[in-house]
């Protein structure tokens, strides 16, 4: 896309009289483009965020430069565009805050997203670590998001959400040295997929993708490249793993799960769902640790020695493997 074409689209969808660059927010993973903040004059908002996807190859930070990896990333941006165009803010913003989308454009493999600037909306806070209160706010966001999307079909999205889903990660599975975990990987995946209750999962709900409101009581979430169908415990386990280390994750496990299911119950009532929160909890609560094992499997194949491969996730994974073996014995 030509720069003039991009600027014209921004002016059209925001009804601004003029625009000016406010700087690059960040580059996209593996050099696939950039996210920029654009200032506006004469519009209802003073600025927007423009995510410009320009696919590239050969720049993966950890060397995963395969065609499969490239195609997965391409699809992830197509999914994100579809999410904002068809299901995003309209379906969840009453319960779980996400950026509004002003417009999108696709030219070949290039994708442009023109999104609400959450900093301007009061969500300028970013965290590298969280208090217990802040963690509960994020856990509550996840519960609200899952409640809003309960039984929603992932049309146009990933059939199975999350970026570490086994079916999309054969290379990492092949690299896995832990033979016991390698054998158990399909069992772990099947256990999560067999859940009778499905929602849409965010798919990359790490702490870095949450924006904290200035009032200290709300968060919004970004980055919907891997949104798709699945069990809500995938998001929850992944989020906790992005915040807490060994002892903290184990010590707070029950408290986090209690907080999540308490919020989920209230939100299901709020959206008028026919699904009973008690039934979901009976099935999903035991899957929390299975979800931990699922992500542990991916990390062991993708980046052995990564800090997220904690003693806690190792112990949980071993317990899950034993449990699954007993189920099929």
Share of residues in strands: 15-25%
How far apart the termini lie comes to 57 Å
Indicate how many domains the architecture comprises.
Answer: 2
User: Count of helices?
Assistant: 11
Task: Describe the model.
- The protein is 47% helix and 16% strand.
- A hairpin with a 5-residue loop joins β2 and β3 (47-53).
- It has 2 domains: 3-116, Phosphorylase Kinase, domain 1; 132-328, Aminoglycoside 3'-phosphotransferase, Chain: A, domain 2, CATH 3.90.1200.
- The mean pLDDT is 93.
- The termini are far apart.
- With 329 residues, the protein is α+β, with helices and mostly antiparallel strands.
- The longest helix has 26 residues, at 67-92.
- The strands form 3 sheets. It has a 5-stranded antiparallel sheet, with helices on both faces.
- It is globular.
- It has helices at 3-14, 67-92, 132-148, 170-175, 179-193, 233-243, 246-251, 253-270, 277-284, 287-302, 311-328, and strands at residues 18-27, 33-41, 47-53, 101-107, 110-116, 199-201, 210-212, 219-221, 228-230.
- It has 11 helices and 9 strands.
Compact description:
With 329 residues, the chain is of the alpha+beta class. Helices cover 47% and strands 16% of the residues.
Which short descriptors sum up this protein?
Phosphorylase Kinase, domain 1; 2 domains; alpha+beta; 329 residues; Aminoglycoside 3'-phosphotransferase, Chain: A, domain 2; five-stranded antiparallel beta sheet
